[in-house]
């Protein structure tokens, strides 16, 4: 799958003797327990992924951490304001950023998805790519409301919600990408339109069935295929910042549940490995 940006950075898994389920990594020291749970940000409504073990860990957590506070994600006025800040460049529209052939493909795809190319024109390439990909998935029966974070957030009182970064920071990461990488991402998105649903269903199945190596290949390899810069910006830098924040949390005491895109939990640069390197006990896939 080639769009961790748009459909979310995703997962890794644990297979029990009885059945496969979305996994957990448990990070602990003498007086702290932290469950790391991989998420997919947009899913079909009919996918059964909840488990009793996951719900127990969620319910027992004193604090539940998300990439972004659900209250920010659901604040449409805020998200629109930030999209304008980080995602629009009317002085340099897509018609000027893209060569004639690429802009023609973009216009055709946008029209097929029911979007007006002229309305998307002022968007920066990264935001145009995300918009096309998400629209394509929604057309094929996926829903952001069925995404793991939204489901989990509704099960937990908001006073237990915590955010690892702000929406302003997150969109700022996308906006910091070089023009070349932004353009490469949009071109890849255009090429993948019509294939997104099949790819994401395959990812979601691997996620729910516990195929860890498949998850890593689908997410991290595809990000690196776009560029090393994209991987360093959206995975490595954020993981390192989150590891620092979670280390501060672990230095206290109590129980936490951390739900972030699974691409942040797998591979050599994943959060489980970063926390293990800091001396914490980690249990889960690969440990």
Structure description:
This protein is of the alpha/beta class. It contains 14 helices and 10 strands. The protein has helices spanning 52-60, 70-73, 76-87, 94-97, 100-112, 117-120, 125-139, 148-154, 167-175, 179-192, 196-209, 212-226, 228-250, 271-277; strands spanning 14-15, 20-21, 25-28, 32-39, 43-44, 63-66, 142-143, 161-163, 254-261, 281-283. The strands form 3 sheets. The chain has a 6-stranded mixed beta sheet, sandwiched between helices. Strands 1-2 form a two-stranded antiparallel ribbon. A two-stranded antiparallel ribbon has the order 5-7. Strand 1 (14-15) and strand 2 (20-21) form a beta hairpin. Helix 3 packs parallel to helix 9 (167-175) and helix 7 runs parallel beside helix 10. The radius of gyration is 19 Å and the shape is globular. The relative contact order is 0.24.
Supply database-style keywords:
single chain; 287 residues; alpha/beta; two-stranded antiparallel sheet; 14 helices; disordered N terminus
Q: Care to give the gist of this entry?
A:
The chain is an alpha/beta fold and about 290 residues long. About 50% of the residues lie in helices and about 15% in strands.
Which helices and strands appear, and what pairs or packs with what?
Elements: E1 14-15, E2 20-21, E3 25-28, E4 32-39, E5 43-44, H1 52-60, E6 63-66, H2 70-73, H3 76-87, H4 94-97, H5 100-112, H6 117-120, H7 125-139, E7 142-143, H8 148-154, E8 161-163, H9 167-175, H10 179-192, H11 196-209, H12 212-226, H13 228-250, E9 254-261, H14 271-277, E10 281-283
Parallel strand pairs: 4-9, 6-8, 6-9
Antiparallel strand pairs: 1-2, 3-4, 3-10, 5-7
């Amino acid at each position: 799958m080639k769009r961790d940006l748009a459909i979310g950075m995703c997962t890794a898994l644990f297979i029990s003797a009885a059945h496969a389920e979305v996994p957990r990594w448990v990070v602990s020291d003498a007086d702290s327990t932290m469950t790391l749970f991989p998420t997919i940000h947009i899913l079909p409504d009919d996918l059964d992924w909840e488990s009793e073990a996951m719900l127990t860990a969620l319910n027992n957590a004193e604090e539940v951490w998300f990439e972004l506070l659900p209250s920010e994600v659901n604040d449409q006025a805020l998200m629109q304001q930030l999209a304008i800040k980080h995602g629009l460049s009317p002085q340099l529209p897509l018609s000027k950023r893209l060569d004639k052939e690429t802009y023609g493909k973009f216009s055709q795809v946008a029209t097929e998805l029911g979007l007006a190319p002229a309305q998307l024109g002022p968007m920066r390439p990264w935001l145009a790519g995300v918009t096309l990909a998400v629209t394509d998935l929604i057309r094929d029966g996926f829903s952001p409301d069925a995404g793991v974070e939204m489901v989990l957030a509704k099960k937990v009182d908001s006073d237990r919600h915590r955010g690892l970064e702000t929406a302003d920071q997150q969109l700022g990461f996308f906006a910091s990408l070089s023009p070349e990488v932004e353009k490469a991402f949009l071109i890849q998105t255009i090429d993948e339109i019509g294939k997104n649903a099949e790819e994401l269903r395959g990812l979601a199945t691997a996620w729910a069935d516990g195929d860890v190596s498949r998850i890593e290949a689908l997410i991290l390899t595809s990000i690196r295929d776009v560029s090393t810069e994209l991987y360093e910006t959206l995975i490595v830098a954020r993981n390192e910042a989150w590891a620092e924040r979670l280390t501060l949390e672990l230095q206290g005491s109590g129980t936490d549940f951390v739900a972030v895109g699974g691409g942040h939990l797998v591979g050599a640069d994943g959060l489980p490995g970063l926390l293990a390197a800091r001396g914490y006990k980690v249990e889960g896939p690969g440990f």
